[in-house]
Design a protein that fits this description.
This protein has two helices and eight strands; from the N terminus they run ββββαββββα. The chain is of the alpha+beta class.
């Protein structure tokens, strides 16, 4: 497990997932944020290919937290990310699997480059 910080956002990388934690629910999209997430992804998965794929497994707007038996949400708003944490979560905002992470990073990279 390795932890990264991008402002008030804690990014935890473990084999096969990346988890976002914070007491805040909105973050500016910055190069620092992108780079921290990119490093976390390299720790979680051996190979990543960022791509634009639409489909149930790749849609990162919602994730289901089994432990809390509730969903969390993520959305882009021009220059920031917004989260709606799962009901009952203290600081946990979101947990990525590989497919959702790859699609999310594709979109995030495009936002950083604009």
């Amino acid at each position: 497990m390795k932890e990264f910080n991008a402002g008030k956002l804690r990014i935890v990388a473990k084999p096969h997932n990346v988890t976002l934690l914070s007491s805040n629910d909105e973050f500016r999209i910055t190069k620092e944020l992108y780079e921290a997430l990119e490093e976390a992804g390299k720790i979680a998965w051996k190979s990543l290919t960022y791509h634009d794929v639409s489909g149930f497994g790749n849609d990162y707007s919602e994730y289901y937290d089994k432990k809390l038996d509730n969903s969390g949400y993520l959305s882009f708003h021009s220059d920031r990310l917004s989260f709606e944490r799962p009901f009952g979560a203290n600081e946990k905002l979101y947990q990525f699997n590989k497919a959702k992470f790859q699609t999310f990073m594709f979109d995030l990279r495009n936002s950083v480059e604009e």
